[in-house]
Specification:
Blueprint: E1 7-9, H1 10-17, H2 21-29, E2 36-38, E3 41-45, H3 46-87
Antiparallel strand pairs: 1-3, 2-3
Helix pairs in contact: 1-2
Length: about 90
């Protein structure tokens, strides 16, 4: 098979990201990664890979922000509870 510069097979993509081909299949099914079909072959471009990485980075940042908000709310409630108990 001819190797096109800037394009990856499913196996190459999985290996380079350290995931299984099944994980790549799931990303494809869920729309997390764009791909192109050429006959029976599926290929991924550098742009597809970059967009996947950007989306994962965004998701991780979003979840980290949500976690931090929940933690801040918990600490605020705990602080309020402690101050109420100390007043009694």
């Amino acid at each position: 098979m001819v190797k096109l510069k800037g394009f990856y097979s499913k196996a190459e993509l999985a290996e380079s990201l350290g995931v299984s081909k099944r994980t790549v299949d799931n990303w494809m099914s869920n729309g997390k990664i764009s791909f192109t079909k050429v006959g029976r072959k599926v290929i991924f471009s550098d742009d597809d890979l970059e967009l996947l990485i950007r989306n994962f980075h965004h998701d991780a940042f979003y979840h980290q922000k949500q976690y931090q908000q929940k933690l801040d709310n918990y600490l605020d409630r705990k602080k309020t509870t402690n101050s109420l108990l100390n007043e009694s």
